[in-house]
Each structure stands twice: as C-alpha cells, then as structure tokens.
Known about the structure:
Helix content is 20%, strand content 36%.
Amino acid sequence: MLAKVINNLAGEAGISLKPSSTMVIGENSLVSKLVKLGFSAQKVNDPRFAISISRIAPQNEGDIFVHTEDLAVLRPETGFSNSLRSLRQELKSTKASLLLSVRSLGENDSKGERFVVIESEGKKIERLSLTGEVKEISVYGGNIISVGNGRAFVKHHGCKHGICTSMGHVSMAGDVIACAPHQTMISVVKA
C-alpha cells in the first residue's frame, strides 16, 4: 500500500521520486520500509524531494490530504482526480498506522528567515517568525499551535483523531501540518 500511495501521488504531481534526489526522514524502523521500496536511508546531496514517515495511533481511518504550491487545500469532492478519489476510497477502508508526506524542496530551504503561516477555514490567521519567542495560538476547533525557537507544532488538538499532533514539528520551508476536520493548515514559508 505504501508503494501504491507514493507512486500515485508522484504520478499525480508529475514528478519522479528517484532515490538519488529524494531525502527520507523518519525513525529508522520506518525509514527501512521506504528502503525496501528502493529509497536510500543515506544522506542525499541536493535533494529535490523529501518523504517523511511517522507513526500515528492505529485507530485513525486512512486518508489523503493534498495542498498545492499556493497553499490551497484540495477538497476530495472537487480537487481530486478520479485516480486520487479511488485511492482515497481504498485507504478509507483501512486503519492508518503511518503518516506519510511527500513534498518538494526548493533551493536552500533550510537557509534564510522562515515564517509560519497559520490558516483556518480558508483564512490566514497568523504569520509569525520561527525565530521569535514561543507563542501559543488558539484556532477554530480547539487546536493550540506553538510557534517559536525555530519550530512550530500542534500542542493540543480539538478533534477525535489528533493526527495533527502526530505530525511532529515543522521548521523548513515547505513543511506542513494539517488538521482536516478543522480545515487548519500550518506551513513554513521563506521571507
């Protein structure tokens, strides 16, 4: 299923996730699942893409979340292709135990001033520097987002799934945390 999701998402985006240009992030036991698919656990020079993999509570229903370069969230009913809708139906019949994200890396994503943009229900709520003091922002649905000291993360979730808290922290340009039930997205952008 992991290979199917990666191949489908890469095909939809029109990208080639080659081991020589794809960085793999996650705990060793999970990264080994991607190594079996041909990706390398070794450092990649000048990566174009990043795949991160982490564990989530297995009571969560499988699903797909897609956002575009301009940070728009695609709705399955209107923004997904037939192929993605079909894959989504297949995933929703399973219990998810892993969270997989695939993202494009721009040049020098880890350099320069970075900001966190918090959106809720399609509206920009906050834009905060990652380098400032830690601030906690409350958004619709009861989510509390912590931003500062070089990272952002969901400190408390207000839904029954809590997938957003399992997504860890974001710090590099292009990193995203999403809460689909509350239509909240936390993304890191460069100045």
